[in-house]
Specification:
With 239 residues, the chain is α/β, with parallel strands linked by helices. It is built from eight helices and eleven strands. The termini are close together. It binds 2-phosphoglycolic acid. 2-phosphoglycolic acid binds next to loops.
Length: 239
């Protein structure tokens, strides 16, 4: 199997990716989507919210940090601010992992059952600086289920970019198994600070050391990178 790599000029990246997603939604208005949060998808959400129609779609949030309600670093806060609040019409069905549930472990099983009941048509992902997908940190197996995890120190420290003061210690994440079961996966990677990990993900051995390498075993995965992130790679298909 192979993974596609599409590289766009930095200034073009947001518009080109947004175009692709809008075209996808036209063809699949009732798509079951899994969406990430963070800095990478933010400009795409801003653009897509202007013209996208999500009235028939179902959305799952990829992950969540164990942070107090109202903390700007919470994934539900970010998706609300970056995307949902900008849509002219609300998304009717939105599922998120909720630390306020009586049992966080059962909450993970509940969400995983909902995902499996129809699967995911399209999963969008960002690439962690340590190669994580969602909060599937290094060491995560491709069979991993949706679960409560310890946030890796580098991931916790990086949340200051989202406005957290106290870094989160725990998170919840869709497991690699339901993510990799998605019919289609798009990985968004931008900025020169992601160049080294993107290169590692594309050419180092497929292994839990860099969970994103498992995307190379997926039948329908595409990396959308800007030139700053993909400087060390050439576009096309990587084995
Ligand atoms: P970022 O996060 O888009 O904020 O860089 C990506 C990730 O950690 O998965």
């Amino acid at each position: 199997m192979s993974i596609r790599l599409e590289v766009f000029d930095d200034e073009q990246w947001t518009a080109r990716v947004a175009e692709r997603w809008l075209a996808y939604m036209k063809d699949h208005p009732a798509a079951r989507l899994c969406l990430p949060t963070g800095e990478t998808p933010r400009p795409v959400y801003d653009r897509v919210a202007q013209d996208g129609d999500f009235r028939e779609s179902t959305v799952f949030l990829l992950d969540e940090f164990d942070l107090p309600v109202g903390n700007p670093g919470r994934c539900d806060q970010m998706i609300q601010h970056d995307f949902l609040d900008r849509l002219p019409q609300p998304i009717p069905v939105l599922h998120r992992l909720d630390f306020a549930a009586a049992s966080p472990a059962e909450e993970c099983w509940r969400i995983e059952d909902l995902v499996d009941d129809g699967g995911l048509d399209l999963t969008l992902l960002g690439l962690g600086g340590n190669g994580h997908l969602g909060l599937n940190e290094p060491g995560s197996l491709p069979s991993s289920t949706t679960r409560v995890v310890e946030v890796a120190p580098a991931t916790a420290a990086a949340t200051h970019r989202y406005g957290t003061v106290e870094p989160p210690e725990r998170g919840m994440t869709l497991g690699l198994r339901p993510i990799l079961d998605s019919r289609e996966i798009w990985l968004f990677v931008t900025g020169s600070h992601k160049a080294a990990i993107l290169e590692r993900m594309m050419i180092s051995p497929i292994s839990p050391d860099v969970p994103a390498t498992f995307l190379r075993d997926h039948a329908n995965a595409t990396v959308f990178a800007d030139r700053s992130a993909a400087g060390r790679l050439s576009s096309g298909v990587a084995e």
